[in-house]
Amino acid sequence: MADVPVTAGVLGVRLPLVQAGMGGVAGPALAAAVAEAGALGTVALYRVDASTAAELVRRTAENTAATFGVNVIPEVAGATLPAQVAAVLDAADRRLVINVYGLPPSWLVPRAHDAGHTVLVQVGSAADAQRAAADGADVLAVQGVEAGGHHLGDRPVADLLAEVLDRGVSVPVLAAGGIQRADQVAEHLRAGAGGCLCGTAFVVAAEAAAHPDYQAAIVAAGEDATTVTDRFAIGWPGRRHRVLRSAVTQAAQPPAGRFVAWTTVTGRRLPVPRGSAAVPTVETQGGIAEMARYAGTGARWVTAVEPAAEIVSRLTGLPATGESVARVGSAL
Q: Name one Pfam family in it (predicted).
């Protein structure tokens, strides 16, 4: 349990729990609510431009005095990434956690550190974990194949965590993938993790921007409700992803492309083609069930849409406010 306060201290929060950055779902309301509950809330940037990135940081900061994270995805942001990062650093009014999906470019970690911020890097292999730690990451998150969303590897989280720890990486390591219950968090802590990173658990937060039909489908999910597929590659090619099963994932052949919905992104109304990586949000209208409804294997244990503070409490076994991180280990 010694790693628990160390990890939380490195991240600047009370509890060793991180809400994943989920494009379209993890907006300022969710990030601020999770931060207020004592965990690390994260606002997702995905493909947004610099001005929108700055606005997301400012809006999150207006709703919490706590540390929060900002998620960037180098392989998706592409040439927009430097402008996104610059805008985030300029807009920051406190220490932030820059949460990077996949290995960051060589300039990112030094730039974040020079500005006084912490860097968390998500990886899917032990080799990438070692490289990220050597390149200066402050915290790692190892993503198992149980995770919802896009995958960085193909290993179960427990196996990957064990290998990374056996290699003696020099920074705290979070476990990610299929985590919905306090006993799962406790098991990963006993195995040596410094905490957990959770996504699907927070898709069903009342403050999340996920479409209500998407949330309801997760609540209704059964034992075998998710699958790993490559059917939602438009906008994010080359990464397999875990989603709720649907007519799109189960068809013998990829269904012919056509627009299945409309959504709004940074004020623009856009059509959503079948096979798009876009997630159904509160702004989406149309065929929600034909879209990419990302969800991890832990969806089978989700029973309701709840406030983020209640989700934090359920995952840690502690009241969401007023508890010190030193009590997490004994509570779990």
A: NMO
